[in-house]
Amino acid sequence: MTLSTATEAAVAPAVPEDADEVAPKKRLPIGAWLSIAWLVLVVFLALFADLLPLHDPNVSVASKAELAPGEEGLWLGADGSSRDMLSRTIYGGRNSLGIAVGAVTIGFVIGGLLGLFSGYFRNWIGKSLAALFDILLAIPALVLALSLVSVLKGDPVQAPDAFRLPTILILILALGVVSIPLLARITRGNTMAWAQREFVTAARAQGATNGRILFREILPNVLPAMAYIALLGVAIAVVAEGGLAILGASLDPPAATWGIMINDGKSAMEDAPFIMFTPIVATFLTVMALNYLGDLIRDRFDVRESAL
Amino acid sequence: MRLIAQRLIQLVVVFVVVTLFTAGLISLVPGKPENLVIPFDNTPGQTLRQEFRESNNLDDPLPVRWAKWAGDFVQGDLGNFYSASGGTPVRTRFDQSWPVSVSLILYTQVLSLLVAIPLALWAAYRSGRWTDKIINTFAFGAISLPSFAVALLLTYYLGVQMGWVPTQGYVRLTEDPGEHFRHVIVPVLALSLGQIAVYMRLLRSDLVATLQEDFILMAKSKGISNGRVLWRHALRPSSLTLLTVTGLSMGNLIGGTLVIEFLLGIPGLGVLIGETVLRRQYEALQSLVAVVAIAFVLINFTVDALYSVLDPRIRERTT
Amino acid sequence: MSENQTDHANQPVLEVRDLVTQFSSERGTVNAVRGVSFDLYRGRTLGVVGESGSGKSVLSRSVMGLMPGNATRTGSVRFEGSEVLNASPKVMRSYWGQKMSMVFQDPMTALNPVLRIERQITESLHEHIDMSKAQAKDTALALLTSVGIPEPARRMRQYPHEMSGGMRQRIMIAIALACGPRMLFADEPTTALDVTVQAQILDLLQSMQRDREMSMILVTHDLGVVAGRADDIAVMYAGRIVEKAPAERLFAGMRHPYTQALMRSIPKLEMPSHTRLDAIAGRPPDLVNLPEGCSFAPRCPNAQEKCLVDDPALTADDDHADHVFACHFPVNEVVVAAPGIRVDGQPPRIAHDPSLGGSA
Ligand SMILES: Nc1ncnc2c1ncn2[C@@H]1O[C@H](COP(=O)(O)OP(=O)(O)O)[C@@H](O)[C@H]1O
Ligand SMILES: [Mg+2]
To answer: pTM for the complete prediction?
Structure first.
């Protein structure tokens, strides 16, 4: 998993990489435009998939399985079950991104708040929370996510009557919960760094309440770092969903995600490698665009990540 | 001495919190645990399920159950893996599978550092020039490519197309060293690629900062070669972040191997953990998670100890 | 001090001609050194004095060839007769440490924090002189003893952070001297040190330089430091030498208003230790956009219209050919030297050093 990018983010030094990279407000580099263009395209397709003239992603439409790209009007060909690869890629992207964005949102709301509080209130509660984040990070994220999915899915055979969330929500919850300690830790580091600034002391001296200081003074400053981590987080979650799909713990068939498509393509690798390549390329471009924009934000705002 | 005591307490706290957390999580699973763990009990009178209830102390309250489990755990009993034909100790499969994963992770870390360190030195030395830009661009691409995708691409190109490496399976080093290394090429390369890029980028940026230091100019002024300046004077003071991340990335590598082992049919710890989850062997899972968490904590203690080897100023402070 | 130069050698150790150093930066080209020329003979010391930012460090690094990647140099630097300005890195490395070495300003940052002292000293011995481990170790011990480090054997096994600033600077000197260089660059060797040890370090440098008949460039922002220790003094402003003369001549009659101003900023003996110095008003010019005319004109009390358009060249004093200065309206009166510096150019008594107390 590229979860290690997050640890990189968590410990990377705050100094910009090169003296000559500190350039104040240059124009956006071409890579940024390409990244934005790709993400806009993917998000647009995901949002309006239903309105587009696409085949149903979950039913066979081709005359045979593993139909080569371009034949029978299917630009990206058909998969092992004769389903339209183009519409599966688009709907798969919708699911992959939906899961990732949902998970990061949960992680942010809960982890961010916990981090904000534990970084601001340096009493025993704040410290125990911080210790708890560290401890929970000792459980490998993917193992925890997998267990959560398994627990939340329950066992439809043995416990058929038990209440069950829709699988997509289960995945969002599982990946979201896993990201809480990491995001909390990063937010905490940033909050601690900002809480020591003069303007916070000044605000306190003027009798501002803790809540006001936290949300009016500190939060706005921590946000650029959060934006960077959010983009990274979405990238990591997209990859994590892929991992879960390979372990067979993603959405239930016949639904598609990029991870599920990669896993499906694996068995057809010898005869029809394109089935595997398409979702890999989609994942790669998306993750790269998110990483690129994240790095850009980090460099622009001189984000402090090292205050751990 | 105080340090060791402190570490021990930390370890115990991590163990207790992590396992209580997993125990709590497991208790949330709807349905009767014995039915989940043993979906088909062919024994007359369902004695297997009854046995399971007893051996896992399911009639006790959670804290008591946890205490009994922990007692078994510290004695090396990792619980049982249940199936219709009865329970087998997880310990047996654990003993067979952990060396597989540990060697994959070890190879990955060694290979990643061996490649990342010279690349980072080179990029930092040529900072801002073409070499640096090319290395960085590749690193960026490598970071964005998930390890399972790399594994599949390598399997396709090196295995299916070229026929150079097997596409599935694993051979132990002790059985046949040659075959062993042929089998680990794809998983280790797949796990290493992103790792190399992460290490390279971190070390490069620390090195670029170190190369601005006075003592580097001083070293140069002695007339020693650039190679020596980089390797002897710049590398060590720049490697603390890299060391931290190497320790922290153990957790991610365990997740990574889990997927890669699944994908390539390698009978390692990852597959074992995955199976315990998917077959809802929760007691076994709790034991395995505890083992992994303890290993993670111990590795990071080692990293802490290595800090002071790398930087004598830290040695001063801790002793 | 006052021997004739020709006593020593007929060929200078170092001949610098029209040395120009520029850095490319985001703001544009930084003109850090703008046409500097001087000769330095064997066993003699050139003091380079100027405010911070005047280009002293860049000058000494340019002469030595220790340049960052964004620098370009033109002109000529001849060391013992051979041109070294555009020598290959490999050739330069054979000079560095062995024939010329440098003592840096801040001993806190110029020693490698993670290597033992022994390593840092013996490293250049192994590089330049074919020595066994034991020989190198003995040499290092002898060096440490000669720079006045007590218990050298114990110090060898220590790391820089375990020592005081003065001790570290002695170690840096030992490192610089390890291979017996003929040319020593000392870039503000005492600026980062406690006033109490400054004189000791300067005396150490001076005695080493005399014993070994080295040539030395002693860089400082404090005229008081070079007084009595340098044979010649060059005053730098905005990357140029604006006045240069033998030390006693300079103190006898400085001609450039900038030199005069520097003189006033020397800490004086009878002042309480924290008296504010008479710093020079105004700021040094921006080396990216240099003003037309004399670069000191905007801050100069004597500046006239001519100074703002016409950059004065270095010209010799009417009476003394070895006293040059670049000024249209030089000061003429003999400045009464600040107390602590004697007109005869003898060593000043540094105010806070007890060991030099009432010796004068
Ligand atoms: N590597 C560099 N790149 C750009 N400018 C530099 C560089 N090194 C020095 N300078 C500039 O050159 C000028 C002279 O610096 P320096 O020689 O260090 O002054 P000082 O007389 O205090 O030793 C300064 O304005 C400094 O900013
Ligand atoms: Mg300087």
So the answer is: 0.88
